[in-house]
Amino acid sequence: MLISELFYSLQGEGKRIGFPSFFIRTNYCNLRCKFSGGNLCDSAYTSWEPKDKRNLGKIDISEIIDKYNYYYPVDIVITGGEPTLQTNELILLCQRIKELEKSIFITLETNGTIIGDFLNFIDLVSVSPKLKSSVPFGTKYEQQHNKIRINISNLRHLNKLHNENKFDIQWKFVICKEDDIFEILELKDKIGFRNSDVFLMPEGISAEEINNKRQMVADLCKKNFFNYTDRLQILCWGNERGY
């Protein structure tokens, strides 16, 4: 499995914020986020520069499980990049985790553009659809990113499976500016997700940037009956890898 990094930390966002977790960060992404404030994706080393020499490369699933055993039985968060690009490997990884102990809680962090049988093993699907404010305007990736960033059919299917109690779900949106809320409300109308499953979080790769947007995002949550989530990893450790 192509892995960027393996590390132990606290979940920084969403429903399980603050939970001790073992992170499996896969390499490569099918999107290239560049937010309207100018920041790249906070894990650009898995997307914009996926061949960064610090990445771990191909690691056998058994080795991943061995490293996790040191922290067992904390949560496992499979993130990226975009983990669902490695569909077959993701299925095998989740199978091995559940064979170890069915009660191990697995969160899959995904942009929602790809779905598959790996969903049978996930406890919480953390979907982060990319809004227009993520489009890398003026780059060679602009057209590709904008074309595939939202897959309404897949997002509806994820919501349907959640409503059938196949897994828990959270819809996590990065907010750059107040106008982002209109696109989120449009997606809600098309997909039908519940307000109680929506988390808005301020965009930023520094505590200062997050602090500057926090009140604006909190006000949007109050007005629209959505949940607010901070970015604990940024506030505690900055935009550093392995935290």
Please give the radius of gyration in angstroms.
17 Å
Low-pLDDT regions: none
Sketch the major β-sheet.
Answer: 9 strands, mixed
Order of helices and strands: EEEHEHEEHHEHEHEH
Task: Please identify the structural class as seen in this structure.
Answer: alpha/beta
Total beta strand runs = 9
Helicity, in percent? Answer: 25-40%
Average of per-residue pLDDT values = 96
DSSP strand (E) fraction?
15-25%
Helices, by number, come to 7
N-C termini distance: 21 Å
| CA-based shape | globular
What spatial order of strands do you see in the largest sheet?
Answer: 3-1-2-4-5-6-7-8-9
Could you explain the architecture of this structure?
- With about 240 residues, the chain is an alpha/beta fold.
- The chain is about 30% helix and about 20% strand.
- It has helices spanning about 60-70, 85-100, 140-150, 150-165, 180-190, 205-225, 230-235; strands at about 1-10, 20-25, 55-60, 75-80, 105-110, 125, 170-175, 200, 225-230.
- The longest helix has 18 residues, at about 205-225.
- It starts with a strand and ends in a 6-residue tail after the last helix.
